[in-house]
Write a structure and sequence with these properties.
The protein is mainly alpha-helical and 151 residues long. Helix content is 59%, strand content 0%. Helix 4 packs antiparallel against helix 5 and helix 6 runs parallel beside helix 7. The N and C termini lie far apart (33 Å).
Length: 151
Amino acid sequence: MRKEPTYAFALFLLAPAYSYASRHADAIEMGERLVSVSQEASFFKTIFKTILANVYCRAGMRGKARAIVDELSERRRSEYVSPLTLAWGFGALGDTEAALDHLAQAVDEHSPYLFAIHQDPFWDPLRSQPRFTELASQVGSGVVKSYSPAD
């Protein structure tokens, strides 16, 4: 990060990694930097904001996370905001029904970002839900559902 402090892909990976390692201050720094380097109107900005919302939730900053999810929900009225990003946001906030409703829309849209639904920790808050299991089972054939070093 020293050589390329605005390299979005590295920030995209580091923010959640730090968050899941309970390095919340680092996660927030990377998440906020990620959002700041993305273009305002870009599709990725919504994904990056949702990553930041997840980081905020894991750091106990639910108000900041809620503000992001509310902003994206409002923007959805006038522009395309992927239901996948809203599913991540509502899932992090613990709003299971809203998360699953948006996930169902993402599955219906064949969102390409569902490719990691079986491994991505963003989905962990929903994994125990039967509706999540049903929706995840609809994600394209050929998706690797689990990894085993013996494979």
